[in-house]
Design brief:
Layout (H helix, E strand, L loop, with lengths): L1 E6 L14 E6 L7 E3 L2 E9 H6 L4 E3 L5 E3 L11 E4 L15 E8 L6 H11 L1
Parallel strand pairs: 4-8
Antiparallel strand pairs: 1-2, 3-4, 5-6, 7-8
Pfam family, one: DnaJ_C
Protein name: Chaperone DnaJ C-terminal domain-containing protein
GO molecular function: Hsp70 protein binding; unfolded protein binding
């Protein structure tokens, strides 16, 4: 992502003229956990099937190291997206921030024993 910040008339003056504009071009580097889209941040978090069904308490570390609560008290569906207002990137020349979008991946077991299948059917069936 490229952003350009311009400071008007803060550059060196042209020969026998007015000062020019000072321009900074800011490039955003990729991050391992977060993806930036405008001023919003996006990330993916993997939870277990049990956590998806009964809820969970979880925190993720933000870019500035503060912790953000992303837990849930209810059922979380695979690919569900949770929006956390004001946890995105700061808006230029403003005290507001974008939002954080967390997409949940649900980790399913590779196999179940017959006993586990029976218990699941008793509870859910």
């Amino acid at each position: 992502m490229l952003q350009e910040v311009v400071f008007y008339e803060d550059g060196e003056p042209k020969i026998d003229g007015e000062p020019g504009d000072l321009k900074f071009r800011i490039h955003t580097s990729p991050h391992d956990v977060f993806t930036r889209k405008g001023n919003d941040l996006h990330t993916t978090v993997t939870i277990t099937l049990v956590q998806a069904l009964v809820g969970f308490e979880k925190k993720i570390k933000h870019l500035d190291e503060h912790l953000v609560d992303i837990g849930s008290q209810g059922i979380t569906k695979p690919k569900e997206v949770k929006k956390i207002k004001g946890e995105g990137m700061p808006l230029y020349a403003s005290n507001k921030k974008g939002d954080l979008y967390v997409t949940f991946e649900v980790l399913f077991p590779n196999s179940l024993t017959q006993e586990q299948k029976t218990k699941i059917k008793e509870v859910l069936g």
